[in-house]
Amino acid sequence: MKTIAFANRKGGTGKTTSAVSIAAAIAESGKKVVLVDLDPQANATAALGIERAGRGDGSQALFAGSASSRSLSRRTMLEKLAVIPAGSDLAVIEYGLAANGKKWQSILRKRMKGLAKEYDIAVIDCPPSISPLSVNALVAASGVVVTLQCDYFSLEGLAEFAANIERLRSAHNSQLALFGLLKTMYDARTLLSRQVAEQLARHFGSKVFKTPIPRTVRLAEAPSHGLPITLYAPTSPAATAYREVATELLRRVA
Amino acid sequence: MKTIAFANRKGGTGKTTSAVSIAAAIAESGKKVVLVDLDPQANATAALGIERAGRGDGSQALFAGSASSRSLSRRTMLEKLAVIPAGSDLAVIEYGLAANGKKWQSILRKRMKGLAKEYDIAVIDCPPSISPLSVNALVAASGVVVTLQCDYFSLEGLAEFAANIERLRSAHNSQLALFGLLKTMYDARTLLSRQVAEQLARHFGSKVFKTPIPRTVRLAEAPSHGLPITLYAPTSPAATAYREVATELLRRVA
Ligand SMILES: Nc1ncnc2c1ncn2[C@@H]1O[C@H](COP(=O)(O)OP(=O)(O)OP(=O)(O)O)[C@@H](O)[C@H]1O
Ligand SMILES: Nc1ncnc2c1ncn2[C@@H]1O[C@H](COP(=O)(O)OP(=O)(O)OP(=O)(O)O)[C@@H](O)[C@H]1O
Ligand SMILES: [Mg+2]
Ligand SMILES: [Mg+2]
User: Count of CB atoms within 10 A of residue B74's CB?
Assistant: First the structure.
């Protein structure tokens, strides 16, 4: 099983939208996928029409060690896509996690081992900011996809984020790969977007996914119906773009 | 001195852009303003052309109690606008803050008292997620402005955010007002935006600021020049909208 974390400390960069859309596209291509919602906001959970986790349930129970990972996963409308949902108790876990002793960064990696028999791919949706939850995700992951808008703050934050990944790799997870940088909410009509895209290409070369995800209201509407874009608007440019990225990602993950 | 926190756990809702634009507009109207950057990403700091704080400097020194608030503020290109910048050490503070004993939520309120003699208005830019930094900001604040995009996840998260504010009010800060809800990156052409705006109006009535902030590349460009929108593009719809909101906000704060 390969584990793909969708991360960026910057807020609103399309982490959840990309984790959900790509998990769905991979499941539709025939692989068994489990999406782990690690954000107390539980956006990915809602986007797939699943109820928030209650006490003793969902991804917070993974951290508490109070339930096996296999008992926590929920089915979705896609045969090959399961979800371990998030709930508000995850916020309580977040506060206490870093006080859990020397190996707190590796708790999630240990607890996710039970998923390997059942799934080909695990996708983790991370919260924004340098959360102990995101740190656990990056230690548990085979690699990370960094989603970002093409704007000034995103570019500013990238160097530091790359340094953070490097630090985690040497301290806790030597296998952590940078699977790629994904341009989201892309508006090719603005000069700023094209300038930032150029900078990305110059500094990260082939790490940048070829296909940018266009800004489109379809992607903002889909979660309100509890459907991934691949079901909500299967022939839309947004669904097509995410399927292309999913294909490119699977090649890099293999 | 009145203290206004710009907060929302959801990422990328325009907290920083609004804190900077409104702080600038209020300063240009003649009041003395200090902007406290409480986000380790230091976006507000960069948006006003100020260098990140180094060790022992900036808002992290406020928490460490190692420097007076007045010694930490930096001048900007606007005569009446000062900034207490953020730096990456703030992330270290963030992790340790909740372990600081019983009154950790009130540290910022205590340390900001020294600003009252010198400024009319303090503006605090908060990071996303339920950070101990945001909690400190809400306990230090006279009131909060919640910025949000008009989309599904934003609406979903509001009820819980309102509950969190209520909890903080009863536990730590009985004066904490909800100064208002600000619609950002608004695109009136999409049905989803108008539907969400309607829901906001129905549930929050006059709390919602009359003027939405339009989505415009000018606001994304301004920080790359280290200028607030009111200087970068003074006659643009974006600058006009933020000035109108600043005026409405000052009435509510008084
Ligand atoms: N390509 C797109 N076009 C239009 N809207 C989009 C697009 N991608 C995402 N959105 C919308 O933008 C908002 C932010 O996206 P999303 O929640 O996926 O980002 P995030 O990085 O997960 O945010 P957070 O940092 O809060 O976790 C959401 O309302 C989402 O529906
Ligand atoms: N009205 C607008 N039109 C176009 N772009 C905007 C607008 N408001 C903000 N932006 C851009 O959108 C991005 C997100 O905005 P901003 O950083 O202010 O949100 P935030 O809530 O502070 O994010 P975070 O949760 O990471 O702190 C930034 O690149 C900003 O320049
Ligand atoms: Mg998200
Ligand atoms: Mg911000």
Answer: 17
Q: Is the pLDDT of residue B231 over 90?
A: yes
Pocket flag, ligand 2, residue B17 (CB < 6 Å)? yes
Q: Which of A129, A190, A224 lies at the smallest CB-CB distance from B128?
A: A129
Provide the pLDDT for residue A174: 87
Using the structure block, give the residue that is written with the tokens 């991804």. Answer: A59
Residue with CA nearest ligand 2 atom 27: B127
What CA–CA distance (Å, rounded) separates B138 from B121?
15
Separation of alpha carbons B33 and B27, rounded Å:
6
pLDDT band at residue A102 using 50, 70 and 90 as cut-offs: confident
Q: Are B128 and A128 in contact (CB under 8 A)?
A: yes
Contact A13, A144 (CB under 8 A): no
Strand A143-149, strand B2-7: pairing: unpaired
pLDDT tens readout for residues A17-56: 999 999 999 999 999 999 999 999 999 999 999 999 988 8
Residue A44: closest CA among A35, A53, A33: A35
Q: What's residue A241's pLDDT?
A: 98
Return the residue in A153, A155, A164, A189 with the most chain B beta carbons within 10 A, the one to mutate for interface testing.
Answer: A153
Widest Cα–Cα separation across chain B: 51
The finding on whether A233 has its CB within 6 A of some atom of ligand 1 is: no
How many angstroms away from the CA of B153 is the closest CA of chain A? 7
Residue of A nearest to B97 (CA): A95
Cβ contacts below 8 Å, chain A against chain B, sum to 94
Task: Quote the mean pLDDT of chain B.
Answer: 95
pLDDT in tens, B100-123: 788 999 999 999 999 999 999 999
Buried b (16+ CB within 10 A) or exposed e, B100-125: eeeebbebbbebbeebeeebbbbbbb
Q: A65 Cβ partners below 8 Å, 6+ apart?
A: A107, A111
Contact (CB<8Å) B95/A91: no
pLDDT digits (tens, 9 = 90+) for A66-77: 899 889 999 999
pLDDT band of residue B8 (cuts 50, 70, 90) is: very high
Q: Relative to the CA of B20, which ligand 2 atom is closest?
A: 18
- Please report the pLDDT score of residue A82 as a whole number: 98
CA of A5 to the centre of ligand 3 (A): 12
How much distance in Å is there from the Cα of B12 to the middle of ligand 1?
8
